[in-house]
Design a protein that fits this description.
- This protein is mainly α.
- The chain has one domain.
- Helix 2 packs antiparallel against helix 3 and helix 3 packs antiparallel against helix 4.
- Keywords: Membrane, Transmembrane, Transmembrane helix.
- Pfam families: DUF2975.
C-alpha cells in the first residue's frame, strides 16, 4: 500500500492543478477568445455565445470528471474501490463524458456545416479538427463504459472471493 500512496498523492496534486486550469479556461480564456474573435470577424459573431456556452459546459463536465476521479482515488487509497460507492462516481463520470460528447457533436456538426457553406471560410482544417475531437470523445466515452464493466466484473469476483474466504 505504500507504493499506492506514493501514486495517489501526486495524482491528487495534478488533479488539483488540472481543476484550477479548467477553471481559468472556463471563466477567462475561452470566453475572452470567443469575444475577441467576434469583434475581429463579424461574420462569425453569431457563434460567440453558442461556442462560449458549449466551452463553459464542456469545462464543467471535465471538472465533474476531475472531482469524481478525486473521490475514486480516495476509495482506492482506502481499499474500497470494489464497492457500490465506486459505481456512483463512475456513473457520474460516464454521464458527464456522454453529455460533453453530445454537446461537442452537436456544436461541431453545426459549426462544420456553417464553415462548409460559407464561401469565405473554405479551410477544411476546422471541420476536420472538430470531427477528430468528436471521434476522440467517442473513444473516451466507450473506453469508460468498458472500464465500468471491468470494475463491475472485478467487484463481483471480489464479493465471491470474500464469501469463499
Amino acid at each position: 500500500m505504500f507504493t499506492l500512496r506514493r501514486v495517489v498523492v501526486p495524482l491528487r496534486a495534478l488533479l488539483a492543478l488540472l481543476f484550477l486550469g479548467l477553471l481559468v479556461g472556463q471563466t477567462l480564456s475561452f470566453p475572452g477568445m470567443f469575444a475577441h474573435q467576434a469583434r475581429e470577424n463579424p461574420l462569425a459573431a453569431g457563434w460567440q455565445w453558442p461556442l462560449t456556452l458549449a466551452a463553459v459546459f464542456g469545462f464543467l463536465c471535465a471538472e465533474v470528471v476531475v472531482v469524481c476521479t478525486w473521490r475514486l482515488l480516495g476509495l482506492v487509497r482506502d481499499g474500497r474501490i470494489f464497492s457500490a460507492r465506486a459505481f456512483v462516481w463512475v456513473d457520474v463520470i460516464v454521464g458527464a463524458m456522454v453529455t460533453a460528447w453530445l454537446v461537442l457533436a452537436a456544436i461541431g456538426g453545426s459549426l462544420s456545416w456553417f464553415i462548409y457553406v460559407t464561401p469565405q471560410l473554405r479551410d477544411p482544417g476546422v471541420p476536420m479538427m472538430l470531427f477528430g475531437m468528436t471521434v476522440v470523445g467517442a473513444v473516451l466515452v466507450l473506453t469508460m463504459v468498458v472500464m465500468r464493466a471491468l470494475l463491475r466484473q472485478a467487484t463481483v469476483l471480489r464479493t465471491e472471493l470474500d464469501a469463499v474466504i
